[in-house]
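Protein Entry — a single chain follows
Fields — amino acid sequence, structure tokens
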Amino acid sequence: MKFIPTYWLNKKLVRMSASSKKFTQQPWAQGVVLILFVVIAMILANLPFTRETYHNILETSLSINVTSPGGGTFTFPKEMTVEKFINDILMVVFFFTVGLEIKREVVSGELSTTKKAIMPIIAAFGGVVAPAMIYMAINHGTAAGSGWGIPTATDIAFAIGILAILGDKVPVSLKVFLTALAIADDLIAILVIAIFYGSSVNLLLLGLALVLVLGIIVMKKMGEKRPWFYFIPAIAVWTLFYYSGIHATMSGVVMAFLIPAKPRYSKNYLFQKCKIYTRRLIKHDDIDEEDFPNDIQRKVLRDISNTTTDSVAMSYRLEHALSPWVNFLIMPIFALANAGVTIPGPEYFNIFHFTPEMGSVGMGIVLGLVLGKPIGITLASWIAVKTKIGTMPARSTWPMLLAVACLGGIGFTMSIFVDTLSFADAPEYTHELRNMGKVAVLMGSVVAAVLGSVLVNLVHKKKTAQRLN
């Protein structure tokens, strides 16, 4: 009798596991999970009986104080709270995977040749400059002025997810174009964060970090491809970045570019070893033994596993292993910690609210994402095509490119992250501006997603009607 419920339970668990795996493999799944956690964060931050607990948890200290025999106290990490742990440590893993994605595209993807890369890179620059100009035109000389980097980013996951939902209404070439543009956009955003949103720099610690990075480069040139030889220095690089004033997440990007993109074993070596392993398996196969594998065969199978693993580049293995954790754990936690904005009044939703002291962070971000992104991307692409520097994506039209460019206005993850770094030079307004900025990012991203989707459908419908006529 016990067998039946146990069997039923195991069968149910297998089905649930298969369903969850199928869900996570959908291109839109990450966006759905992020939206869910944004909603949860907003609810927790605004319900009277959860608001205080929510903020208290985020402000809980995680630092360790060590007292020396002489009476001095050393705190590590400095001023570390739950919120800073998420933004300065967990987000390092996010930026590490972003760096791996950029590296993959540069090595063998859509940014691997000048011909492939030139158009999306030019479009990405246009999509950064135009929103920044719109934002600064509104907020120059006000406390909100330093937030110009917020509307310059594109969220790859959401943009690709919406393209997947739109299906064959968008030409494949434009899907590739937007993906490559978003990758280039991320690289520009990383540079913006590193250059404009760090604190005062400790040159000694930064110098030590650079020396360590040079040592890793030498190690890589010597052919070292074992993960632990990169993981341990990565912790040291993060620590030096964290205390030097360069934002700690940049250490993730630096380490990503240092990870070997070539496998430890070549194709010929793999083929030769597989032949040897196959012969060993056959040689030690005991036809009288029903259990496979036997002791010797288990050893051979372990050797096969190790050899095949090292025949795939470490950078690809790490990207493949980390992506699910980043997409369905780290990013939802980030959204839960950073999207929870306590709304004191309706003025947070009034993007046209402007004061001479504070400016209008909402207007700058929403207009930057909704108007600046598509205008900048389309205009830069048009200039590139007309000057024959770049070529128009195959089977695409300017109306469809403009529609897809609107999806570039989905800032979300990276925009919220830049918002958490902005406005430090106006301490009396910092908290309020950051909260208003997060609300504006959410509003602008939703409007950009809806606008882009509607325009894609309209352009496709018109094109279909013309073809039928």
Observations:
- The radius of gyration is 25 Å.
- The longest strand covers residues 64-67.
- The chain has a mean pLDDT of 86.
